[in-house]
Write a structure and sequence with these properties.
Blueprint lengths: L1 E7 L5 H10 L3 E4 L6 H10 L4 E5 L11 H10 L3 E8 L2 H11 L21 H12 L7 E4 L5 H13 L6 E8 L10 E4 L20 H8 L2 H23 L4 E8 L5 H13 L4 E6 L4
Parallel strand pairs: 1-3, 1-4, 2-3, 4-5, 6-8, 6-9, 7-8
């Protein structure tokens, strides 16, 4: 059975991700206590199902301790289990809760050492939830949704889930340093030292996927040199990631605005590695 487990911080988009999986044909269950996961899998197999998606979070904190063992058991039984941990910056989470006017799931939860009459602030709830779920991160592929709209998150999750099973999926993503480092990056490369098409009036409105920008960057030897260095570095260490039983490795390429140089480099690198590996290419700053 194909099993996708969605977990992570409240407000990071778990419900959106679950809806994507439901549209893809998965039987979806939200807020399932982890202690019931194996029983649910067994039930769905008896019913002839082949795909299951489950979302769990800090609302089931008391039974999260068994999750690691359950995942290992399911994999040992031959099930294909993918785990995604969705997260976002505190500022993004606070903004989302403010916009939706929803309370945090932990706002009514009594934490050890707290007066029952004291409600946690939103900031305290987020900090407490990060602490509760911290041990799950090493079980999962981390997806930082800080800069994602709902539509972009849907596209991202769909791409991750629909990729055919392979020893490792290589994800190249461009980003803007002015918006901060992506939290889900395994390797980060800075390409801000390269010639910037932004200062060419004709190239400024274009992106690194447009041919005039490609021609501009192709004309500089230092661009080709940096491309070769990054390509060789990733190629050298990719077997080690595979030996570490990674499912995904995220290579983030950053420039100032995330529009020209980083997009160009990510696309070129993705094109190169597609010849031998399963590759996804994404651009955080582009619609």
């Amino acid at each position: 059975m194909k099993i996708v487990l969605i977990t992570g911080i409240s407000g990071s988009g778990k419900s959106v991700a679950l809806h994507v999986l439901e549209d893809a044909g998965y039987f979806c269950v939200d807020n399932l206590p982890p202690s019931l996961l194996c029983a649910l899998v067994e039930t769905r197999i008896k019913e002839g199902a082949s795909m299951l998606a489950v979302a769990t979070d800090a609302r089931s904190a008391d039974s999260l301790a068994t999750l690691r063992t359950d995942i290992e058991q399911l994999r040992g039984e031959g099930h294909e289990v993918k785990v995604f941990f969705l997260t976002a910056s505190d500022e993004t989470l606070i903004t989302r809760f403010s916009e939706t006017r929803r309370s945090h799931p932990l706002s009514h939860r009594l934490l050890p050492g707290r007066n029952p009459a004291d409600r946690l602030t939103l900031t305290e709830c987020i900090a407490a939830e990060r602490d509760m779920l911290g041990e799950l991160k090493d079980l999962a592929e981390i997806v930082d949704t800080s800069q994602f709209s709902a539509n972009k998150l849907r596209s991202w999750i769909k791409g991750l889930v629909e990729v055919e099973r392979s020893p490792l999926t290589l994800l190249f993503e461009s980003f803007a340093f002015k918006s901060g480092l992506p939290l889900d990056a395994d390797l980060v490369f800075d390409v801000r030292m390269l010639p910037n098409p932004h200062y060419d009036r004709d190239l400024r409105p274009l992106t690194g996927r447009d041919q005039p920008v490609i021609d501009f960057l192709d004309s500089y030897p230092e661009v080709a040199d940096l491309m070769a260095d990054i390509r060789n570095f990733v190629g050298k260490w990719l077997p080690s990631f595979k030996d570490d039983n990674r499912s995904y490795v995220t290579v983030a390429i950053g420039c100032t605005g995330g529009q020209h140089r980083s997009v160009y480099m990510a696309e070129k690198l993705a094109m190169h590695f597609r010849a031998t590996d399963q590759v996804i290419c994404r651009h955080r700053q582009l619609d």
